[in-house]
Task: structure prediction
Amino acid sequence: MEDVIVIGAGAVGAFVARSLSRYQLSVLVIDRENDVGDETSMANSAIVHSGYDPDPGTKKAFFNVAGNRMFPQLAKELDVDFGQVGTMTIAIEDSQMPMLRELMKRAAENGVPAQLLSAEETKRLEPNVNPEVKASLLCPTGGIVNPFALVAHAMENALDNGVRLSLCETVIGIVRKADFYEVRTDKGVHEAKVVVNAAGVHSDEIASMIEPIDWKINPRKGEYYVLDHYAPGLVNHVLFPLPSAKGKGVLVTMTTSGNYLVGPSSEFVSDKDDTATDGMTLADVKAQALRLVPSIPFNQEIRVYAGLRATPSTHDFIIEPSKKYRDFINAAGIESPGLASSPAIGEYVATKLVGAVIDLVPKADYNPRVRPYVRPLTLSLKERNALIRKNPAYGYIVCQCEKVSLGEIQDVLSRSLPCLSVKALKKRTRAGFGKCQGGFCQPQAIRILAAHYHETPLEVLYDRVGSHIVIDETKKEAK
Ligand SMILES: Cc1cc2nc3c(=O)[nH]c(=O)nc-3n(C[C@H](O)[C@H](O)[C@H](O)COP(=O)(O)OP(=O)(O)OC[C@H]3O[C@@H](n4cnc5c(N)ncnc54)[C@H](O)[C@@H]3O)c2cc1C
Result:
C-alpha cells in the first residue's frame, strides 16, 4: 500500500512528488509515457510568467506569483537554466493603451512589479520592435526556463529522495475501497491511501473515475516556430502582444539555449493527443509575430511543434480535493501559466491537501539539490581541458550542432531518472536539438542507448512504445 500515488509526471506531478519527497511517505508516480514531461510540459513557451496577467483573486494569479518567486532558488537547487530576462507587453495601436493600463493595474493587485514604458524607452530596450510601438509594460520578474530540465531534474530530485516512478503505465480505472484506493492500470493494480490527479489534458477522465464531475478539459492547441541560435540580440526580453480572449497571444522570445521561439497559436481541438502542426495556422503565427518584431529571421527556422493546453471549463486551475473524498486530490486544468505555477502547486498540494489527510513527518536526510550537471560549454578553455584530461569522454563530441559530449550523455545515464528513448536523451542533453535535428548524432545516440539498456540497437525507441528506429541490419553477413 502506497501512502500517495501521483498520476502524471508532467511539471505538476513532478513538483508534487518533489514536495512529498521531503516527508516520510511511500510515493509512487505513474505516467503513461516512457519519459517524464513528455506531453504539455515539453511543448509550451517555457516562460516563467511574472503574474501580471491573470485576474486578481484567481488560483492562476495566486500560484503564478508564488511559483515565480520560487524560481531563482529552485533553479539553483535543481541546476536548471533560468534567466530572469523580464517580459514586455507591447501596445502597437493607440486603441490598446487602455488595456495596457488595465494590465498595469492587475499587476499591482497581484503584487507583481511592473513599469509602463514610453515608445522611446521601449525602442531603447528593444531596438527591433515594430517602430509603430506606442508603449509597453515591463515586468522584470518574468523569465525563461529550460522546461525539459525543469521537469526531469524535479523528478530526479524526488527519486533521489525516495519517490518511485513507473513509466509506460496507463491508469485505466480507480476504485474507492473502505479507506483506500485501488488504482488499476494496463500493468496491474496498485493501492494507495491518497491519490493525486495530475494527468494534464486527461485529468477530467481521471477525476470522473471516482465520481461524476461538473467540469471538463477542452484541449487548446498552440503551434510554434523554433529558430536557430546564430543571431543573438533580436530581442532582449520576452515580447508579448496585448492578451485577448484567446490567451496571451503570439510571443517572440529567446530560449535559455539562445534559440528564438515564435508562437503560439490558440485553437480548440477535439483530440487530446493531436499535436500536429499545419501550414495555415503557422502562417498566421508568422504574420502576428512580424507585427511585433518585423525583422524576425524566419530563414533560420529549424523546427515547428505544437502543444495542448488543458483548458478547464471553469476558467481557473482546479486544485482541490474531489467533492466526495478529501484524499482524492485534483491538480487539474493547469493551462498557462502552469509551468511557472508548478513549483507552488506542488508545495500546496503536498503540504496543504495531502497534509490535511496524512501525517507529514519530515525526513532528516532530505536533500533539495540534484548532483550538479557538468556543462563543458560554460567552462573556460583551461577548465574544459582539465575536465577532458580527467574524463576524455567530455572531449568526444556526439552532437556537433549543439556540441554535446559523450561525457554529458554518460552522466545523464548514470542518474536515478531513466532516460529510455532518443527523444528523452535529446531533452536531457540537447543532442539532436540543433540544425540537423539529429541527422548526424542519432545513430550514435541509438548505439549509446543500446549499449546501456538493451541487447541490440533494434530495441531502441525514438519516443513512445513501438517507435522503433532501426528495424533490421542492412550490412549483416549473408547466412
Ligand atoms: C502552447 C502552450 C504554451 C504554454 N506556455 C506556457 C508558458 O510559457 N509558461 C507557463 O507557465 N505555462 C505555459 N503553458 C502551460 C504549461 O505547459 C502547463 O500548464 C503544464 O505543462 C502542465 O503540466 P501538467 O503536469 O499539468 O500536464 P502534462 O505535462 O500534460 O502532464 C500530464 C501527464 O499525465 C500523464 N497521463 C495522462 N493520462 C494518464 C493516464 N491515464 N495514466 C498515466 N498517466 C497519464 C501524461 O502522460 C502526462 O505526462 C503552456 C501550454 C501550452 C500548451
User: Anything to note?
Assistant: The two ends are 53 Å apart (CA to CA). The domain at 376-459 is CATH 1.10.10.1100 (Arc Repressor Mutant, subunit A). The chain has twelve helices and 22 strands. The pocket of flavin-adenine dinucleotide is lined by residues 7-13, 30-33, 37-41, 44-47, 49, 170-171, 198-200, 202, 222, 264, 307-309, 334-340 (CB under 6 Å).
